[in-house]
Amino acid sequence: MQILNHESRLSRRELLRSAGAMGLGMAAGLPALAQGAGAADFRLDKQVRIIVAYGAGGASDAIARYVGDAIAQRGGKPVIVENRPGADGNIAAEAVVRAPTDAYNLLVSGSSTHAANATIYKKLAYDPDKDFTPLATMANTPYAMLVNPKRIAQTTAADFLAWARKDGQTLSFASANVGGRIAGERFKQLTRINAVNVPYKSSAQAMTDLIGGQFDYYFCDMLTALPQIKAGTVRALALSSSKRIASLPDVPTVAELGYPDFDVSSWIAIWSARATTPQPVSAALSRWIGEALESPAGQDFLVKKGLVPTPVSPEHLLHLQARDTRDWGRIIIEAGMQQP
After folding, report:
1. Each residue of 134-149: pLDDT tens digit?
2. Which 3 state secondary structure label does DSSP give 305?
3. Contacting residues for 167 by C-beta, under 8 A, at least 6 apart
4. Treating both helix axes as pointing N-terminal to C-terminal, what angle do 279-294 and 59-75 enclose, rounded to 10 degrees?
5. CATH class given for the domain over 3-141+266-335
6. Each residue of 22-38: pLDDT tens digit?
7. Which residues is 132 bridged to in the sheet?
8. To 5 degrees, how large is the angle CA 185–CA 191–CA 195?
9. Is residue 58 packed enough to be buried (19+ CB in 10 Å), middle (13-18) or exposed (0-12)?
10. Among the residues of 127-201, which ranges form H helices?
11. Residue ranges per domain, the chain?
12. What CATH superfamily is the domain 143-257?
């Protein structure tokens, strides 16, 4: 099917079984599950709209289109992918909540809309819990700490920190999203260096200015970082994740530098709007997304994009939401990131 451009499998089986037991699949206006059939026989009765909280070309956009293709193939209806960037994902989240009933409406976002924003913003136009049904965590997105080798002579993170602490100098670091900002702030807190944030609206803009020598370091998403690292225009000194990643096996983590509590990785996830997507449909979508991403082809897709595979389940997503709302909330308050 065409895409229009405008933790376990057991849990998904249980979701489908419970929905079928309640007879919801036979309700008026819903696509029916054939008696005795499973998700493989489920067909949608209208199109799916996926609204992505970030711009075209990024990791969230890429994975949204990948799972959109899987949904279209399995559900038998077109999938529309729309990008609605801005306001740390709030614009997209509100758009999904307010979307019309002509489609089953899904949100692809992550730890901004469903963890950090509850602390950053005094008021949200959506409720992360009540307005959305969690479908799946789709990938973890670690950040690479990048420097411009023409501006920063140090070739290791340890040497960089020794240099940064000299003479009480104040450095500058870029961020293009909430996760990257939190990684930079947490790095500053733990290493006790002086640094000020330079915010950007997109990873591409921040990368352009890093190459241009406009600031000292940048915790960058892997999709943007990898091509420039391979080209030699930037140098990766450390990773924000708790473990090294396959695409950069020689780059150490910040935790390896003597900061074992440092672990800041964003995650990309997908939710359905409760108001326009009934539970039987959400259950089928969750299963299809899991099948696509847990397949060998899906795992290969993630690794090539610099993403880290993760348990694909609603339960794991709920766990991450609760954990990062709590942990990131503390960092946000300490760093003074709250909006006035």
Report:
1. 999 999 999 999 999 9
2. coil
3. none
4. 110
5. alpha beta
6. 333 333 344 443 323 45
7. 273
8. 50
9. buried
10. 157-164, 178-191
11. 3-141+266-335, 143-257
12. Periplasmic binding protein-like II (3.40.190.10)
